[in-house]
């Protein structure tokens, strides 16, 4: 089941990147009042609803998912409230106001393709912005890299633009069934914001030798995304599909809703290949300086897939170092990469690695569902970041 993943035309880089930096990243994961934890004890019971076999025991959940706890929205918290909370955090941490952004790009993944733009329209009204200043997208797990690509296109077309905010607000509990073992143990809610700013024409000087500040800024030096048609076993075994059915909420209540389903084996194989492809193409796009450390921030679908990807990638790229924080957050869809950026020094510490340094190259690699053609496509991409 190969995907011809090393075809040279498959993952073309963005050729003319404006001089941009990631000036700040925040997350609501540990902000009080937005989320509540969902541990493996609860997942064990949820997976057995409706007389399903579910997970065998807690050890099985930990082994397959790699997660100890993920997050749910607290009762009464809506996706719109997450957007409001992100703006408050940006003001608190970076002094940036909503009026200081030329555009706000939002990823809110859902089985309803109109949900993201509805949220964007509501957010614009709540924040007092013109409706065309806030744009919603339904990108799924590759969402953060996709938002970077959308922002680069805007910066390239509009030289007067100086700052774009990239928001992710993921609430997979609203479009999954908690008794579906393929998803219930891995998905978790999250919300992040990243500021992308235009720099002067000349690249900034690299910081002095030594570790960088806990809140570094990162220059965007490489970027690519692609949607790929992949082999499937038959028309009856799509990679992903949506059905409206009797299901269970993540609080154990019977509901009728549209939910996402997945053909797990094919997605597992293709996911590993596409993440390797993204890393391979990223390293070809940016020659390393002598002694430069490479930190890889992979999307984290599940513990099983992440372990398989890292094992395969280390054989091909033994000098790369891999960061993960899946155990503490779960697969929070498009929030996964910016969540790591918001706590990068801590993530390095958890992975027994030195903190980020001024000579490091950071590579974000993503792979996942292609929302506009779920049946036989998946998406992948990468972003290259260097301290500035």
Task: Provide a short characterization of the protein structure.
By secondary structure, the protein is of the alpha/beta class.
Give an account of the 3D structure:
It is a single chain. By secondary structure, the chain is an alpha/beta fold. The chain has one domain: Thiolase/Chalcone synthase (Peroxisomal Thiolase, Chain A, domain 1, 3-Layer(aba) Sandwich), CATH 3.40.47. The chain is 30% helix and 26% strand. It has helices at 40-47, 58-65, 79-94, 115-127, 143-157, 181-184, 264-285, 303-316, 326-329, 336-342, 344-350, and strands at 20-27, 35-39, 69-73, 103-107, 134-137, 163-170, 190-198, 218-229, 240-248, 254-262, 294-298, 320-322, 361-369, 377-387. It has a ten-stranded mixed beta sheet, sandwiched between helices. The protein has a two-stranded antiparallel sheet with strand order 2-3. A hairpin with a 7-residue loop joins strand 13 (361-369) and strand 14 (377-387). Helix 3 (79-94) packs across helix 4. It is globular and about 60 Å long.
Low-confidence stretches: 1-5
User: Beta-strand level of the residues, as a percent range?
Assistant: 25-35%
Shape annotation: globular
User: From the 3D coordinates, which CATH architecture would you assign?
Assistant: 3-Layer(aba) Sandwich
Count of separate DSSP helical elements? 11
């Amino acid at each position: 089941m190969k995907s011809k993943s090393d075809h040279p035309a498959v993952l073309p880089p963005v050729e003319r990147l404006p001089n941009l930096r990631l000036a700040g990243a925040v997350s609501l994961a540990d902000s009080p009042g937005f989320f509540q934890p969902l541990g493996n004890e609860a997942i064990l019971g949820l997976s057995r609803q409706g007389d399903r076999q579910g997970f065998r025991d807690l050890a099985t959940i930990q082994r397959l998912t790699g997660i100890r706890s993920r997050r749910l929205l607290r009762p009464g918290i809506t996706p719109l409230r997450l957007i409001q909370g992100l703006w408050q955090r940006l003001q608190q941490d970076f002094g940036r106001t909503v009026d200081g952004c030329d555009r706000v790009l939002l990823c809110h993944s859902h089985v309803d393709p109109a949900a993201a733009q509805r949220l964007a329209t509501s957010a614009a009204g709540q924040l007092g912005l013109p409706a065309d200043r806030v744009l919603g997208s339904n990108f799924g797990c590759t969402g953060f890299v996709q938002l970077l690509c959308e922002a680069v296109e805007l910066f390239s077309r509009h030289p007067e633009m100086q700052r774009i905010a990239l928001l992710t607000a993921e609430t997979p509990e609203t479009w999954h069934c908690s008794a579906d073992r393929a998803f219930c143990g891995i998905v978790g809610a999250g919300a992040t914001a990243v500021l992308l700013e235009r720099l002067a024409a000349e690249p900034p000087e690299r910081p002095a030798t030594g570790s960088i500040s806990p809140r570094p800024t990162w220059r965007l030096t490489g970027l690519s995304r692609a949607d790929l048609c992949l082999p499937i076993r038959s028309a009856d075994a799509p990679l992903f599909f949506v059905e409206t059915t009797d299901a269970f909420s993540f609080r154990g209540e019977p509901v009728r809703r549209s939910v996402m389903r997945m053909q797990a084996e094919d997605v597992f194989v293709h996911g590993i290949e596409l993440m390797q492809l993204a890393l391979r193409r990223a390293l070809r796009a940016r020659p390393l300086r002598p002694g430069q450390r490479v930190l890889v921030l992979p999307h984290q679908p599940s513990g099983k897939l992440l372990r398989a990807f890292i094992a395969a990638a280390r054989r091909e790229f033994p000098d790369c170092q891999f960061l993960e924080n899946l155990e503490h957050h779960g697969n929070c869809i498009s929030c996964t990469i910016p969540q790591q950026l918001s706590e990068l020094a801590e993530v390095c510490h958890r992975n027994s690695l030195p903190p980020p340094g001024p000579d490091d190259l950071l590579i974000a690699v993503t792979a996942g569902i292609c929302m506009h053609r779920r049946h036989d496509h998946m998406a992948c991409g990468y972003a290259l970041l260097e301290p500035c």
